[in-house]
Design goal:
This protein is α+β, with helices and mostly antiparallel strands. Helices cover about 30% and strands about 25% of the residues. The strands form eleven sheets. The chain has a six-stranded mixed beta sheet. A four-stranded parallel beta sheet has the order 6-5-9-10, sandwiched between helices. Strands 19-14-13-24 form a four-stranded mixed beta sheet, with helices on both faces.
Amino acid sequence: MALNSEILPSKLIIGIDVGGTFTDVTVWHKSTGLTAAFKVLSNRTAPDQAILQGLHKAAVNLSDVERIVHGTTVATNVVLERRGPPIAMITTTGFRDVVELGRTTRMVPNTLYDPYFRKPPALVKRRDRYCVDGRIEADGSISTALDETALHRLGALIAADGVEAVAVCLFNSYRNPVHEIRAAKIISEYVELVSVSHEVLNEIREYERFSTCVVNAYIMPVMVRYVQRLVGALNSQHYQGAFYTMGSNGGLLSNRMVETKPVRTILSGPAGGVAASCALMGDLGIENFISYDMGGTSSDVSLVCGGRWPQKRETIIDAIIIKVPQIDINTIGAGGGSIAYLDEGGSLLLGPESAGSNPGPACYGNGGLKPTLTDANAVLRRLGGNQTLGGTLTIDAGLADAVLQPLAKQKGVTIQEMANGVVGLAVAKAAAAIYEVSVARGHDPRQFTLLPFGGAGPLHACEVAQELGIDHVCVPCNPGVFSSFGSLCTAVSKDRSRTLLKLLDKSLLDEIRGVAQVFEQEIRAEIAGEGLDTKGYRSTWQLDARYLGQAHEITITVTSESALGDVQDIFCQEFAREFGRLDQDRSIEIVNVRIIGHLPANRPAFQEIRQGGGAHPVEFRELYLNGGWSNCSVYDRTELHQGDWLPGPAIVEEMSATLYVPVGWTLTVGRLGELNIRYAQ
């Protein structure tokens, strides 16, 4: 759709989400509060080109744009597909193989009993991992001087090999970074891009710090070129506003931060969806919900309890640990473009391979020859031929029937039965992912609302909810571009951390307040250095705590006013919720202190819609339900208004997504245009 003429000209703010199949653009005019959404097919080999195409489709004058925020999967794909350039690593003598030894566990799902399992190789080859003499002890003292002569020799050798980036990972640098600082300075004389472990992660545990630093170096050349190419293209079109990238923790990252610490963009893509979810549900007064973002390639689920953003400290991608503050998102390889196939034993499987945007699902008519989840929904006629996805694509059910026919024939079932099986498998995988972030962590999903979005989320949401016993599904406006809208709802975010490794007592709390005060000043100064006004700045204090003698810790949130008893109570509550027990007689040890500073940005307000006069179908369609064809009402979402009510089975279509309401569920339109679907028990 085109921008409403009312929101031109004046200053605009643009949010962009680069997905595996579609690139979404949301344009917000601050003065009027109006927004407009657009979709274009993603360009996997040149994602920046899809962004430019989306901006062109939005028909905006970039000189009128004040800020652009985008979420991207570029960094994640570089790691998953091992497309990074050759890099080198410099470490303390004796620690060359830390990044390859890793942990004692296999860190790859479903491999524990696989006798043929081979661990994925490290991102930096052993021949490119160099050692240098110099030793920092656990207390921060220097026992062996740094061999600077050897560093100069290594720098020249690495540069001659054509290495693009170097990870400097020295032992105990979290206690005293003096050797790392000097080593990085020397190596930067020979190689332009240098990743330094204490700057990337200033916390204890060598493997986690080294691994995160190596990932940062591995994706750094790609991200530097990507950002510079994209910003350069925008500037060539007279764009002079700010440009930010969504960070893994849900905050905004400046171009400088993306170029020096690109590892913080690993979960950039799905972070916008969680931000939008928290904004909408906050306005609706719903504190406990589960976001379910199903796009073309994957599904991302996240649990929000008490209205607080779900945070975690590490993620594992292809057996590689990445430890940076990030939103707690569980990702599975099941999206609308996920390919369905039969394994050697004849069992039906779905994903993780996706048809992507090119050629895409067969029913898109772009040459796709493999059956996907989207094709299965077209076979069942949940996706209809009259709908225009993203404003450009139409559905050809005949092509979907053709690609599912071989699978159905091989299994000896009808095409519709095979399509039901594919959809059922996608529902089961999504339910399992939600189980992991809810039941497995002490939460009852029946006490939460399911918030589906993404192009395929609403299509499967009610069936996923029914699988988990959830009786309330809430579908936001423009669900297919919800993540790009979320880019407009996020704050600039900075963090600092330090390892303490001390028992919790009153004197330690005083020390924590002193550390926090220094961190707060540093964060404020960094924000101001980016030309931003720190008015409205706020911060979150986190402690990584454990019982004395334990190997792993949990993260708790405290405040500057928290007394000793308050911190102890918070730790006990979180520990009991996660593990179902307490060790009252054991001392509590504080491992790390972390301060996260936020500078909230103005965000679009959700507009209250006008009252309706009753929902009326725009057409009737035969859907395959319960083993046969049944007549179903199809509604145009743009014609639904506040208070409208309709029973399932029903289909609600819009530009960015399709909603399927099964039998037994009823839909009511809410005041902010959200669709509340409830199960009639």
